[in-house]
Structures are given as C-alpha cells and as structure tokens.
Amino acid sequence: MEINGKTRVCGLLGNPVEHTLSPMIHNTLAKILGHDMVYVPFLVEPGRVAEAVTGSLALNLLGLNVTVPYKSEVIASLQEMDDLAGNIGAVNTLVRTEGGYKGYNTDMEGLYRAMTDEGISMEGEQIIVLGAGGAARAVAYLCAVKGADRVYMLNRTLGKAQTVAGEVNRTMGRDVIVPMAMEEYNKLPEGKFLAVQGTSVGLAPHVDDVVIADEVFYEKIHTGFDLIYSPWETRFMKMTKAHGGRAYNGLKMLLYQGIIAYELWNRVSVSKEDAQVVYEKLKAHLTGKV
Ligand code: ATR
After folding, report:
1. pTM score, two decimals?
2. 199 CA to middle of ligand 1, Å?
3. Fewer Cβ neighbours under 10 Å: the N or C end of the chain?
4. What number does the ligand 1 atom closest to the CA of 136 have?
C-alpha cells in the first residue's frame, strides 16, 4: 500500500512483540477491503503502558491491540470499558472515542466465533477447561455466559481455580464453574466433554509436553480445543484425535479476535470469504507452506 497524509494508524502494545501475527491479519484485511490503514507493532517497556496510551491518543492512532503483559494494566488508562471486558478483567482492544480509548476484549468473542465456525456449541455442554491463568479464566467466563451446564476447571494450583470459580459463579449467580486440581481428572463425572486447553504447556519449542499425559483422560473428550497454534498440532490435540475426538488449534481464535478488533476500528463487517483468505495466509506462514 502507499502511505499518504490520510493513512490511519493502528498498532499493538506489548512486550515482546517481535513474533506477533497481528500485522499480517490487519494489513491483509486493509488490502483486501481497500482501507487506507496500516498496523504496526509497538514494543512498550515495563511501567510505560500509561504513557503509551496517552501518546497514542496524542498521535491520533485509530485503535490498538494490547497483548502480554499489559492486558490488565492498560485498564487504568482507559476512558470507558465494555461490559464483557470489565467482567473478564482483561482488555486486548482499544477503540478511539471522543476523549480517550474504550477497552474491549475480543479474545473471547474471537474464541466464540472460532468455535461457532467449527460447529462447536457451549450451550448445555459439560466442559473441561485446563488451566486457570488469564486465558483460561476468560474461557471459563465465556462458557458460563454462553450457557454451559457445568465447567470443570482443572489447574495445577488448585487455589487459582478456586478463586476464578468463586468470581465467575458470583457474577453469574449460579455454581457453574467447579474447581479441581489437575491430578483429579479421574474424579470427573461420567460422560463425554468439550475440553479447552488453556495452559501454556505444549507451546513451541516444548512440543512434546502435555498437561495430562494419561491416555484414559482423552477417552472423555469428544472435542478438544487448544488455544495454542504453534505447533500446528499440539500433543493435546494428537492425543484427543487418537481417542476418536475432534481437535482444533487456536489459530481461528487468533484470527477472529483480530477481525473483531478490525471491525470495531473501521465500522465494517468482514465476510466469511475474506476471513478465509486471511486464515489461509496465516496457516501457510505457520506451517511453512508459503
Ligand atoms: P495466560 O495469560 O497465557 O493464561 P498465565 O496466566 O501465566 O498465562 O497462566 C498459565 C497457565 O498455565 C496456568 O494455569 C498455569 O498453572 P498454575 O496456575 O498452576 O501456574 C499453567 N501452567 C504453566 N506451566 C504449567 C505446567 N508445567 N504444568 C501445569 N500447568 C502449567
């Protein structure tokens, strides 16, 4: 694209940002849709996120994504918060308004759209969430909001799962999240589950790691969704498939969190066909088939 005096700038605040795929998502969308917009990564040093937001406003940046480790810290610098982001306690998208930025969490809507795309529903489901960190907490909240029957949250540190369960159950007004220690998987009730892998275990380069290595556990899973997309197929996904389940990686979630942010910034709606073009480009990049 040719940058001119009217080009709008969007970007990513994070640390590190070197390996982000977000510029590929947004710059590809801008090209396909013919928008005069460019998206760039901004490396923000610890303790400087408030300055970065003030500076972005002064520079008239249209919108920002926020990634690790600033998704919670950035909230203090915002003028307004979307309800979903407020309940999750994490923001990954800032949209420019009159006097400041409004914070959104498109990660969760992104996961929801990714699951819907694959024909996965949470309503009335028995769901296992592995992990209780920032990502898993948001997943558990999403499952609860989308009408899951029960969400069994398994975590190495039981106390963290208990804290998340307490918070989400209070917000929802029902005991939907059941906290458990990771090694208690053999105490899960009978039946088949949708399982979301939300820990960092199995992320490249530690591709042979898996959070639960016992084959018996995978017999309980009808659908496995790993939030990781590098490697393309995690050991969690391989084990799920080996026991007859369907398995998906986190690339569509990444894609859709980006698309929803793009839609908010540019007030457009991205078609399925255009989303697919971006998806194929990301996939080719990740699997080395460029
Ligand atoms: P994120 O924001 O990506 O969710 P996080 O908040 O640091 O990252 O959470 C990491 C998650 O991975 C946690 O659930 C963590 O378990 P603990 O709460 O017990 O720390 C989980 N995790 C990381 N390494 C793990 C390991 N080796 N075994 C089991 N769980 C692990």
Report:
1. 0.94
2. 5
3. C
4. 4
